[in-house]
Design brief:
This is UBP-type zinc finger domain-containing protein. It comes from Chitinophaga qingshengii. The chain is 20% helix and 22% strand. The chain starts with a helix and ends with a strand. It is globular, with a radius of gyration of 12 Å. A hairpin with a 4-residue loop joins β4 and β5. A 5-stranded antiparallel sheet has the order 2-1-3-4-5, covered by helices on one side. The chain is built from 3 helices and 5 strands; from the N terminus they run ααββαβββ. It is an alpha+beta fold.
Amino acid sequence: MTLCSHLKAITEIKTAKAYVCEECIKQDGTWLHLRTCQTCGATLCCDDSPAKHMTQHYHLTEHPVISSAEPGEQWLWCYKDGVFAEY
């Protein structure tokens, strides 16, 4: 597997502070799965969720790498390069 420069730059995985979408709880919304931004540590909902907050976060900030915040899942995704990696 070939890793992009964004994934190679990750030396420590940021984890969710709480198992909630930080934007959905402000808006009384719902989520299906959570992702954590590896640049700033924000935990937001995935594209299967109604609001798709993490993808919105990427488009606003250009923070390229997220991790799954789901229990038992250990993977990273780079939005910019479309690269997936398990850890």
